[in-house]
Write a structure and sequence with these properties.
By secondary structure, the chain is α/β, with parallel strands linked by helices. It has a domain at 7-139 and 320-329: 2-Layer Sandwich (Nucleotidyltransferase, domain 5), CATH 3.30.420. It contains ten helices and 15 strands. The protein has helices at 48-54, 76-89, 113-125, 136-144, 184-199, 205-215, 248-271, 275-284, 298-306, 319-329; strands at 7-14, 18-23, 26-32, 35-38, 43-47, 62-65, 100-107, 128-135, 154-159, 164-170, 173-180, 229-234, 241-246, 286-289, 310-312. The strands form four sheets. A five-stranded mixed sheet has the order 3-2-1-7-8, with helices on both faces. Strands 11-10-9-14-15 form a five-stranded mixed sheet, with helices on both faces. The chain has a three-stranded antiparallel sheet with strand order 5-4-6. A hairpin with a 4-residue loop joins β4 (35-38) and β5. Residues 15-18, 160-162, 184-185, 209, 212-213, 216, 290-292, 294-295, 317 line the site of adenosine-5'-diphosphate.
């Protein structure tokens, strides 16, 4: 930034689970999309990792919210506060003056007009002068390196925290789009439920998340099998401490029904795809992004079921953010950006 140029450019992936901000080519912020509020004054107590640490540990007067939980903005005020605080946390932030910001914000494709408006207002209140928006699957496609403007169809399946978004893209636009509220959060709920039912253990959401990361799987016969993961927690009945090794096979069983819902959503999106685009997709395969794409064996399971190859994006948790960064650089040329 030169001495007299106070415009900064930032790309924000506003995800249901994680918010990532890119400046230049660098990720300058990667935090959970969580806000802790002081319930009485409604003041922000913490955002991001600090707020996430408070989840499940709230005391009276403190409430944590995930403003975008199900892919819709559940809490406009909290969403705005979160964007504002994240911008303050950027390494380039200067407390003496606010530069004018040119920004591209990536939003879930199921967003309504009202929500789009709210994100735009929040971004403007946080200093955004030139604000563009992009839908998540479009950003994912850009991040994966697809030429989204080509007259060729491609399908993206982005499995995030709150939503799975399935979209067919061609000629710089989203042709078909399906968003379901079945994604990482539901996997965690399945695991909590399973540990209670099968092992009589009461576990928290963060523990379920750790189980998923360590032994989460979509298939019961993995080539590269992870070791069992030891889980500590109280017995549901007696409250006495327990220690239980959990295998990936158990988790694959417990996630089976939820993964089936994602399979069915992909199949139904394929059914609604015009046939020229359909054959492009069969030829090229389907791209997986979002943190859910990291579930072991998911690509193989989807291939077995649907008979079209699935490719996991490089660094799937950041593909959308990378694509939002690419959109920022080309904002003037990409007609699919919303102003
Ligand atoms: N290794 C992993 N295996 C399975 N799921 C994962 C893994 N790492 C992260 N996730 C899940 O990915 C989701 C977050 O993905 P992300 O793409 O950041 O979502 P969003 O765009 O909705 O913020 C969370 O539900 C998280 O539990
Ligand atoms: Mg996302």
């Amino acid at each position: 930034m030169g001495l007299f140029s106070f415009t900064e450019e930032i790309a924000i992936d506003l995800g249901t689970a994680n918010t990532i901000i890119i400046q230049g080519d660098k990720v300058v912020l990667d935090e959970p999309s969580v806000v802790a509020l002081n319930q009485h004054e409604g003041k922000v107590k913490a955002v991001g990792k600090k707020a996430a640490m408070m989840r499940g540990r709230e005391s009276e007067g403190i409430r944590t919210v995930r403003p975008l939980r199900d892919g819709v903005i559940a809490d406009f005020g909290a969403c705005e506060a979160m964007i504002r605080e994240f911008i303050k946390m950027l390494p380039s932030h200067n407390k003496w003056f606010t530069p004018t910001l040119k920004m591209v914000v990536c939003i879930p494709s199921g967003s309504t007009e009202v929500e789009i408006r709210a994100v735009r207002d929040s971004s403007e209140h946080a200093g955004g002068r030139d604000v563009y928006m992009i839908y998540e699957p479009m950003a994912a496609a850009l991040g994966i390196g697809i030429d989204v403007e080509a007259p060729e169809g491609c399908m993206i399946v982005d499995i995030g925290g709150g939503t799975t978004e399935i979209a067919v893209i061609s000629l710089g636009g989203i042709v078909t789009n399906k968003s379901i509220n079945v994604a990482g959060d539901i996997f965690n709920e399945d695991i909590i439920d399973y540990m209670g039912r099968m092992h009589n253990m009461r576990i928290s959401e963060p523990t379920a998340e750790r189980i998923k990361i360590n032994v989460g799987a979509a298939l019961t016969d993995l080539e590269d099998a992870p070791e069992d993961y030891i889980v500590h927690g109280p017995n549901r009945m007696t409250a006495l401490p327990m220690e239980i090794p959990v295998s990936y096979q158990e988790i694959a069983h417990c996630l089976d029904k939820t993964i089936m819902k994602i399979e069915n959503a992909v199949l139904s999106a394929l059914e609604n795809t015009p046939s020229e685009l359909y054959s492009d997709i069969v030829k090229k395969g389907i791209y997986l992004s979002g943190g859910g794409a990291l579930l072991r064996g998911l690509d193989k399971r989807l291939y077995d079921k649907i008979n079209i190859p699935f490719h996991v994006a490089e660094d799937p948790l950041r593909a959308v953010a990378r694509g939002t960064g690419i959109a920022l650089k080309n904002a003037a040329n990409f007609s699919f950006l919303m102003r």
